[in-house]
TrEMBL record:
Its cofactor is Zn(2+). GO terms for biological process: riboflavin biosynthetic process. This is Riboflavin biosynthesis protein RibD. It comes from Streptomyces mashuensis. CDD domains: Riboflavin_deaminase-reductase. NADP(+) binds at A160, W176, T202, T228, G295, P296, T297, L298, A299, G300, A301. Zn(2+) binds at H54, C82, C91.
Amino acid sequence: MATATEADAMRRAIALAARGLGSTSPNPVVGCVVLDAHGRTAGEGWHLRAGGPHAEIAALRAAAEAGHDVRGGTAVVTLEPCNHTGRTGPCARALIDAGIARVVYAVADPNPVAGGGAGTLAAAGVHAEGGLLADEAAAGNAAWLTSVLRRRPFVVWKYAATLDGRSAAADGTSRWITSAESRADVHRLRAEADAVVVGSGTLRADDPHLAVRGRDGAVQPLRVVVDTHATVRPGARVLDDAAPTLVAVAEDADTTHLPGTDVLRLPRTAAGLSIPALLDALHARDVRSLLLEGGPTLAGAFLAAGVVDRVVGYLAPALLGAGPAALGDAGIGTIAGALRLDVTDVTRLGPDLRVTATPLPTVPRPVPATAPALATAKEN
């Protein structure tokens, strides 16, 4: 059974893992704390980017550089140590070679290719125990778990509105509904996402840039414009070179006015482009987390498709009374069909409130330590 010291170390490992958000795809975010034989912290690490050292390796290196002896110690890690060689070696073997005597992990690896690290550790005489703070660790790794278990990106819908739910005034003006503090927080969300998505209506109304600003070292997300009829103009800010851009259009759309632009052609539905086809295409491009920024029509389409995993609403203490709503038609015609949410956080940002909620049912549950592996592959 995990000790209080190991639980504290796991909380630290979860916080370390979060430092990799936005830079590790298609890999998971992972944090690790190595304790020496006396239960003292010897080294810490997290997975920084795909192809780079995994969290366990980073923590062991930190311990070695500090001159700490980890033989007989414990590795506390947010995800079961991997068990295969890709661009990096197996972490389970590295822990064994370092003389680690005990491994405590939060979430079992659901991949047959990389999973099974706990079994390898046990066969080498290392005690391995899973499930410590599994819910917390799984929430931090929701994008990767969604990718593995559902084969699509994890979708966060972000919107800004007045308290009466208006995203713009009756005359169409919308800058700025929320405060500078809220707008800065949106850049945090962008920095944590692999892709940022807007519809053509938002593009015409606001000419958004969608790149990350004010976040040192941030990896710029892929900017995606859902534009059925290819109405985006060559001078749009989203087409500059600040970040990569993908324009999703119908299969028969004329894109001759967009030479050099990365264009994705998708099947058309009665409501517009196929959202499942869009997500499939983005997943194939290693997009594991997607920030949906607007507008109301596109948000409604994502909700109607049942693919929104988290909602982040920035609510300004203002009233408009008229103007477009934050959400368009989501295919809900009666109160009995309302999409109910579980509010997981309410935070004040300047004068605004940021409300974070998850639709019920929520993201995939963490995989039990004893669960059978699923037929999918983990990237390295």
